[in-house]
Design brief:
heterodimer, A: 115 residues, mainly beta, 7-stranded mixed sheet, 11 strands, B: 115 residues, 6-stranded mixed sheet, 12 strands, globular
């Protein structure tokens, strides 16, 4: 199956700092990538849709200025959590949509802990 | 609109037992349907999918049939193993009028298999 990588897999940072998470589609080009947040024992919550070469589309209630998304190429999208606070601690998962197979492939996730 | 209703867990079974996890959906148009599996601390892996009515998706002994008349996509396995313990998500890709590639998830069902 298709491979999507995420980096880093785990990050611990101090409150007030910014953290960047990378999502790469390794074996297909993805015009659309998605960023999710998952709380313990819950389903995935879609945060935003990342479109290559254009602005991301954010879901209602997600702060654009706090969660900056950049999709500069067909294989890379980044999520930057700015001025992180403890309540931003979560499991962040990205996915890339393969339009040829109409299937989303998920990265392994990034565990963010803000102290 | 698009939505997925999934059987609430947790589900606890003995090894070699029969598994059914119910999933029903509402959607505009003709969605593709998916089952994803999430092992602890990991991202989601595509388990199987079906793209049109009466299609049967299958993988690793799991099966699900796209039933348009009952708007269902129930997951089944004839004999579960301890290694099948995970969270299972039913999902659909939105049909006409939806964001291309966007997935709509059920809440997830935790499966635990005891030896």
């Amino acid at each position: 199956g298709a491979v999507v990588s995420q980096h880093p897999s785990r990050v611990i940072c101090k409150s007030g700092t910014s953290v960047k998470i990378e999502c790469r589609s390794l074996d297909f080009q993805a015009t659309t990538m998605f960023w999710y947040r998952q709380f313990p024992k819950q389903s995935l919550m879609l945060m935003a849709t990342s479109n290559e070469g254009s602005k991301a589309t954010y879901e209602q209630g997600v702060e654009k200025d706090k969660f900056l998304i950049n999709h500069a190429s067909l294989t890379l999208s980044t999520l930057t959590v700015t001025s992180a606070h403890p309540e931003d601690s979560s499991f962040y998962i990205c996915s890339a949509w393969n339009s040829r197979t109409d299937t989303q492939y998920f990265g392994p996730g990034t565990r963010l802990t803000v102290l | 609109g698009n939505s997925v209703t999934q059987m609430e867990g947790p589900v606890t079974l003995s090894e070699e037992a029969f598994l059914t996890i119910n999933c029903t959906y509402t959607a505009t148009g003709y969605p593709s349907l998916f089952w994803y599996v999430q092992y602890p601390g990991e991202g989601l892996q595509l388990l199987l999918k079906a793209t049109k009515a009466d299609d049967k998706g299958s993988n690793k002994g799991f099966e699900a049939t796209y039933r348009k008349e009952t708007t269902s996509f129930h997951l089944e396995k004839g004999s579960v193993q301890v290694s099948d313990s995970a969270v299972y998500f039913c999902a659909l890709v939105g049909g006409r009028g939806s964001t291309l590639g966007r997935l709509y998830f059920g809440r997830g069902t935790q499966l635990t298999v005891w030896p």
